[in-house]
């Protein structure tokens, strides 16, 4: 489990960016696959999620994850939901202690946020579509709606695909440049003619800064290149593998 000092400084906040190590799953899911949306054995996924929560000194039932769909939708969590009843959204926000807000990723960026003074935490799934579409904007807005102050929010970005691995087609940059011409900074020429390399973590960092979240730290890892520690959707696709695991990132407000 990886943690970042920016969030560790809050006495009432615990968090973790989990790797693929330390679970019971096998094959392409080896070993800490926490994604119930995968084709992995449900019992193995449940045990992996239990192990992840144990690493945070929490019971398995504390973990809440979503049916993620690359939207900009945010859920304000007041109480836990039953297994299989998770809402469709891509971010969670709460001011209630003991609820572990979880995001599942395999190249997209997990972003954990906290206002330690107000006692408000959030977790967001930020792939290119969600980040461009406003999932981070809406997450910060929901935190402020619960009483957070933007200037006090700290964000930590977990392992995601790095720019050297993120080749995109010629049509991809257009909506980013339409949003802001300065987003050209996040595209570099790719080896293939007409293609580009996209810097997802760089784009997310600037997006958060422009939302008023100025303390943004990240785990310096490329999920696509680091097969030992991380699952990767893109790597699985390049190899023609039938499925892929998902790593968990979680944040909780202590009681």
Automatic annotation (TrEMBL):
<keyword id="KW-0862">Zinc</keyword>
<keyword id="KW-0378">Hydrolase</keyword>
<keyword id="KW-0479">Metal-binding</keyword>
<dbReference type="Pfam" id="PF02578">
    <property type="entry name" value="Cu-oxidase_4"/>
</dbReference>
<dbReference type="InterPro" id="IPR011324">
    <property type="entry name" value="Cytotoxic_necrot_fac-like_cat"/>
</dbReference>
<protein>
    <recommendedName>
        <fullName>Purine nucleoside phosphorylase</fullName>
    </recommendedName>
</protein>
<dbReference type="GO" id="GO:0017061">
    <property type="term" value="F:S-methyl-5-thioadenosine phosphorylase activity"/>
</dbReference>
<comment type="similarity">
    <text>Belongs to the purine nucleoside phosphorylase YfiH/LACC1 family.</text>
</comment>
<dbReference type="InterPro" id="IPR003730">
    <property type="entry name" value="Cu_polyphenol_OxRdtase"/>
</dbReference>
<keyword id="KW-0808">Transferase</keyword>
<dbReference type="InterPro" id="IPR038371">
    <property type="entry name" value="Cu_polyphenol_OxRdtase_sf"/>
</dbReference>
<dbReference type="GO" id="GO:0005507">
    <property type="term" value="F:copper ion binding"/>
</dbReference>
<dbReference type="GO" id="GO:0016787">
    <property type="term" value="F:hydrolase activity"/>
</dbReference>
